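Two proteins, back to back. First:
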Amino acid sequence: MRFHREFFFNPMILLIAAIFAVHSVLTILAWQGWLSLAGLLAGMLIYAVMEYLVHRFLMHRFPRVAPKIFEGHAMHHRHPNDVKYLFSGVPYDIAAYAVFYLILLALTRDFPLTFAVVAGTSLYQLYYQWMHYAAHRPIKPITPWGRWMKKKHLLHHFMDEQSWYGVSHPVLDVLLGTDNPRPKSEKRQSSHQPG
């Protein structure tokens, strides 16, 4: 129970849960049938893809694109079990959702569809955050899927940080060939080591 409290009362989780709750209600109130359902699924897919791309490229490959995000992730790799480094700061998520919202509205010109996409995205982000949190805390996932994903994420931290970028799913790791740790002779120096 302690870990559930620690997770659910984190300010970033409270923010994402609020975004999900508000956009779920708005989606229900403005329900457009299959279009709303497609928006929910599209939002989940968008987060699943962005999870991998941001982790692999912004947090590991290109430190100059988003230096604060890169440095925050470097601290997470240096202190992987410290809860202080498990979640992004609230300002990052507010900025990301504001930009995402504007892009969605510009593309769809449809508020109800935008509500559905944001509801799906925030729901998947809550799932992702729980998977990441559970991987780093002394929690034994109850499903084989959860235990397998925890193992793969810990391999990313403790065996080869250039493999297993997916925290909540392995699809892009498999498709893009980052699903197996490389032999030591092939590994690049850690992108998060000092100096």
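And the second protein:
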Amino acid sequence: INDVLDLSRIDSGHLTLSFESLDLRVIAEDVLKNFSQQAAARGVTFSATSHPNSPRTISADRVRLTQVLVNLVSNAVKFNQSGGTV
């Protein structure tokens, strides 16, 4: 229900974002850690690298960024094959 409400807020232009300086690597590591058991149970491994010139921090809404990464990683694990890599 919250996702549907968020979509309606986006459509109406009333979604409030709270931008802050975030370490993308830390957030990505937390998301991957949260899915590590699910990935292991499905025989899927994680491989995470970052470009050496990528910025250490970004300006983003923590909740929305985490929500996007959770959706991406969840789908990548769910629709992967045994022995696959995310």
